[in-house]
Design brief:
There is one protein chain. The relative contact order is 0.15. The protein is built from eight helices and five strands, in the order E-E-E-H-H-H-E-H-E-H-H-H-H. With 175 residues, the chain is an alpha+beta fold. The protein is globular and about 50 Å long. It starts with a strand and ends with a helix. Helices cover 47% and strands 18% of the residues.
């Protein structure tokens, strides 16, 4: 899963999710959606549009997160785990789930944290840098919600296929 948020040059507004993508491991399910912020007078900064490609007009007629939430629960089983890259997405989903349901109704893991621990990193390596180090592919657009989810899915696949090889590839290119 990946999320995009309203942002400007100085800050990411972690309470304002504006896009979400979930891809199943076996390609049987995809949910990609823009999400309308809850307050009526929201703005999408020029910086945010440049970064994500999302404009205010893209969000006006979109569902709110709580409307998408039920769709998420319909497609995610109790045995499933949602992976995100970074604590910002993890905390946002946790907070939204608590606001909507009073509890976190599915398992969610910060895969970046797991990757860091295995590689012995003391810093949080960027999604796109790790993806490029593993695949030698520079074609994915960062901060595009679907592209970021595709990158995360491929990093996860390659990591669990061969953890040591993945670690060597990344550590040889990202220091």
């Amino acid at each position: 899963m990946d999320l995009e948020f309203l942002c400007d040059v100085e800050d990411v507004y972690e309470d304002d999710v504006i896009a979400m993508c979930i891809l199943s491991e076996d390609d049987s399910y995809e949910l990609t959606s823009h999400i309308r912020p809850y307050y009526e007078e929201f703005e999408v900064s020029e910086y945010c549009t440049k970064l994500t490609g999302i404009t205010k007009e893209d969000l006006i007629s979109q569902p709110y997160f709580d409307e998408i939430y039920e769709t998420i629960l319909e497609k995610i089983g109790e045995e499933d785990t949602i992976y995100v890259w970074g604590d910002v997405d993890l905390e946002a989903i946790y907070k939204l789930s608590i606001e909507i349901a009073g509890e976190l109704e599915f398992r969610i893991v910060d895969f970046q944290e797991e990757f860091m621990a295995f590689c012995g990193y003391k810093f949080r390596p960027g999604l796109q840098k790790v993806y490029e180090a593993l695949t030698n592919n520079c074609d994915q657009k960062h901060h595009d919600v679907r592209s970021d989810t595709v990158m995360l899915k491929e990093i996860h696949r390659m990591f669990y296929l061969d953890k040591k090889s993945s670690m060597r590839k990344v550590k040889g290119k990202i220091k």
